């Protein structure tokens, strides 16, 4: 992880995903200490960045295994914080697209599948998610 403003290496993350697979996406959530990444094996991982006594660490947790269908795209759904007492202000939401469905999951306060939507499969299409 690099600080691009100052050109400094902040931390080296060695165990964020399995060896032999490439990282496709890394995206930060509303909480800048939590990111999600997907790899070429179709798996999705939550990365939690911490700093204890000046030592930067990263904890990785598998959210979705590529063995259940390969995730092609991920997108954290950002909350609008202009509404002060919004009922979902403490909820962190992630959208994931596989070749056959779209999944909406909450990462915080607990990991839970909120919504799934089956897609009509066309072998030449890779689905993408974009927040507007």
Any chance you could write out the topology, listing elements then pairs?
Elements: E1 2-3, E2 8-9, E3 23-28, E4 34-39, E5 44-52, E6 55-64, E7 71-77, E8 92-98, E9 101-108, E10 112-118
Q: Can you describe this structure in just a few lines?
A:
This protein is mostly beta strands and 132 residues long.
Would you write up a description of this structure?
- This protein has 132 residues and is mostly beta strands.
- It is built from no helices and 10 strands.
- It has strands spanning 2-3, 8-9, 23-28, 34-39, 44-52, 55-64, 71-77, 92-98, 101-108, 112-118.
- The strands form 3 sheets. The protein has a 4-stranded antiparallel β-sheet with strand order 3-4-5-6, with no helix packed on it. Strands 7-8-9-10 form a 4-stranded antiparallel β-sheet, with no helix packed on it. It has a two-stranded antiparallel ribbon with strand order 1-2.
- β8 and β9 (101-108) form a beta hairpin.
- The radius of gyration is 16 Å and the shape is globular.
- The model has no long low-confidence stretch (mean pLDDT 83).
Main attributes of the structure:
132 residues, mainly beta, 10 strands, four-stranded antiparallel β-sheet
Proportion of helical residues: under 10%
Largest sheet: 4 strands, antiparallel
Which range does the strand content fall in? over 45%
> Structural class of the helices, strands and pairings?
mainly beta
The poorly predicted ranges are none
Shape, principal axes of CA atoms:
globular
Summarize the helix and strand pattern as letters: EEEEEEEEEE
Q: In DSSP terms, counting alpha (H) and pi (I) runs of 4 or more, how many helices?
A: 0
The overall pLDDT average reads: 83
Report, as a whole number of angstroms, the end-to-end distance: 27 Å
């Amino acid at each position: 992880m690099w600080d691009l403003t100052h050109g400094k290496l902040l931390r080296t993350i060695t165990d964020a995903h399995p060896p032999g697979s490439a990282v496709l996406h890394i995206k930060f959530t509303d909480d800048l200490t939590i990111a999600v990444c997907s790899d070429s094996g179709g798996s999705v991982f939550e990365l939690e960045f911490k700093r204890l006594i000046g030592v930067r660490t990263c904890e990785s947790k598998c959210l979705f295994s590529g063995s259940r269908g390969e995730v092609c795209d991920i997108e954290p759904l950002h909350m609008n914080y202009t509404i002060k007492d919004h009922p979902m202000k403490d909820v962190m939401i992630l959208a994931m697209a596989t070749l056959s469905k779209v999944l909406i999951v909450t990462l915080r306060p607990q990991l839970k599948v909120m919504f799934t939507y089956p897609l009509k499969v066309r072998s030449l299409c890779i689905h993408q998610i974009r927040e507007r």
